[in-house]
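Everyone, carefully examine this protein record:
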Amino acid sequence: MQGLQHYFRARTDTLRAPRKSLSVQYTAFLIHSFVGLKLSLLFTVVLLSGALAVLALEIDWLLYSEFRASSGEVRLGAGELLDRLQAAYPEFGLSFFETMNQHPGFASFAMFNDAAGGFRYAWIDPYTGEVNGDTPVLTPGRFIGFLHSTLYLPVIGRSVVNVFGVLTLVSLIAGLYAYPKFWRFFFRMPRTGNARVFWSDLHKLIGLWSLWFVLIIGVTGTWWFYKNPLVSHLGAPYPVESANIKPLLSYDDMDNISGTMLSASSMITTVRKAYPDALILGINPPEHNADPYTVTFAGDAWLVPDGRQNKLYLNPFTAEIIASHTVDKYTAAQRADMAMSPLHLGNWASGNPADLPVKLIWFVFGMGMTVLCISGLIINLKRTARAARIVYSRNKIIRRLHKSWRIIRPWGRPFGLFKYMNVLLILGIGAGCGIALTLSSQGTKGAGFLYQPQPVGNWEVSMNAVAGLLEKDLNPIRPDATVNFNVELPDGAAEAFKFAYLRVGEPRTLRAPGILIHGPKGSRHADIHLPRTLTGNEKIWLTAIGWNDQVYQTQWSLNANGKETIDGR
């Protein structure tokens, strides 16, 4: 009797004893497990696509003959290549011409919109000047790259991906706290006697050897999370100074213009006089009459993306250099911001023999991070299954209920409510991929709201409005939204108009006629931010100014009214 009293007294004291607070190590373990488990399916998609995206260019080179250049020692001039390519596609306006000088085995290319509104790349051999043909923009390599950066989720895609940058950094820090004296596991091979133990040891081994890589991905991803969504959507302060803005031709310059724009070859001739040894990376032709040619060439700066290297801006009518933005003029904060992309993507060795080896290293460790995510999921599943077996072995009713519950809830308990988020986002990615593949061949022409042809001088102009590339089936006219207006200008009108503008509401003065319509032939557009309040009676006005300063105007109902504006969704 006394023994029983002693037992129950001890048991009561144990129950009454206050629980110990969570240790830092155990808290870190819970955080590490939670981050790696709850969104592990989506995390795996992001990591796997990121690893493959490192080799996106090489994947496409293997799949498409158009990407390949013939062997040779002397490349044709960048301007001559662009001029030849434009001559081969006279009905389309080319943009974003890249020489691929930093990749000797690759052809040069430019982008254009075809007659159906789809996006395509035109390719030319830089050694022979022979046009290789054209390919869709969304090649397998680029498809993987866009999947990694946006998940093809409209509006929220980039923000969702950037969240995983924060989760990567949090998981790294928590993992180091969760396993004290982690350095002991650097050379410990995984034990093979038990599946859960094997995956646990493999997880630690890969994680330790990938610490430097995970840190790079975590830091760069976290920085991009700060930019999007915190800065772009939530108004957080941006600590980096604005990049240099491209200069435009002045009103005086435009008044003194006569003749037509010069060729790209003329621009490169001027560049060669100023910078004889410049390695030309790209040429962006003007998108409107006041827009200069932009020529990008390589510099000596490290960790600067190709597209943000030294830039020269040239008057398209005289070939004179009107401004230059060189890397040495960027601030330390701007340089740090630029370094994020090459560090994250592993293309920081572009232009030298180490390029492919560096990319392969990034690919291997990217795949390692993918294995970390999968192995963490397996460890949690096995740990949960082991605990469940112990409970179920003690109670037949619970075991039967569990079997029934698994029919309704086949994924088990570890994901909790987060499994539905995983499933919904995966389904959204699948739908977004289908939309993206369609849009790459169809574009957004003929989608959204259709503004019927209206007379402007001696020509008729039409356009359509969409909310965005992946949002073309949404209502484009929403308060405080940015709308993309694709404008169809006949060739005669494009030549006769010095400028053309769009504005919600009639311009009160020609000093503020609206947003300038710009873009190459076949892809002229204007992005307009709508007012915060809309009554439904607003008009969208097009104002065109001719070379003789004559003014032409027309208007449409901003909202679909079934007459001049039709809802074509």
